[in-house]
Amino acid sequence: AKVKKTKNITFTVPLNYNKAGSRLMCKFLVAVKSGKKYTAVSGEKYISNPEKMASSSRAFTKGKSKKGLQFGESLPDAVSLGVNYCLFNINITEFTQKGGQQLKYNYKGKNYYFNQSAFDRWGSLFSQLQSNKMNLSAEFLLPWEAGQTELIHPAARRKTSAHYYAWNISTKAAREKYEALFSCIAEQFDGGHGRGYINNYIIGNEVNAYSEWHYTGSTSLKTNANLYADTYELVYMAVKSKCKNARVSICLTHTWNVSTAGQFHSSRSFLDQFAVRLKEYGNTDFTIAYHAYS
To answer: Residue 188 and residue 277: Cα distance in Å, rounded?
Structure first.
């Protein structure tokens, strides 16, 4: 978009939502034309209100107490213990697994195919928990999975002893695959498709632990925090554009002020750099899934 310079200016561009030219995930900046060249006069910013597009306005519900349960698929355990908050660890590769019945999902004019049984399996459990008024947090993780290593960031694409790896958002095609995946997940688990409702999306586990829990291939605080912030921003935009009040969270270790070379950054330093990066893009909201145990 372009306008002539005046005291107050407003730019308007079509969103083209979910079409080939969709701008939902785009960054925008202001530039001034001087002669035949444009000079940027602002930083890059994302759209600040993706929730305007959300079809689900289900309210975020807080737990009645701190009492919760991290478990597999034992609904009777959750019910008998009287908890109303449940946490699930979910491998992204379950949804991107090829073979078997596939769920076709059109994103920005392109068809993507995700594993139907993963949606059905988790949806069956989540819908039962929703019926029992339990709040659901899902922590999305990326393990090393033979045949799916393209999901891992190129700098981290070597098999180590790490449990989980940084996500590949290094190219347009890689980014759009993740955009499509989390748009599909947020849509399917929006409480209106018979598969329950994810209240809180936790992106990665202890992401400041760059050697063991979120392997990045780098020891640089700025590199690691910025890569994670960019990944977080992508998921945030995808989720909020489907579920207005769902939350998206960063997961940190209990090492708030301690860092160990070659293993992890302190949670505080990582969070600070993460917040700086988000602020550059428009100060995106975030919540913290903090591991407070020691």
So the answer is: 30
> Encoding tokens for residue 73?
């698929």
What ranges make up the beta strands (E) of 48-192? 69-70, 85-91, 102-107, 110-115, 135-141
Q: How far is CA 247 from CA 124, 241, 253, 259, in A?
A: 22, 12, 19, 28
163-202 pLDDT, tens digit each: 999 999 999 999 999 999 999 999 999 999 999 999 999 9
Q: Per-residue pLDDT tens for 34-77?
A: 888 999 988 999 999 999 999 999 999 887 777 788 876 577 87
* Coil, helix or strand at residue 114: strand
d(CA 56, CA 195): 14
Q: Distance between CA atoms of 135 and 217, rounded to whole angstroms?
A: 35
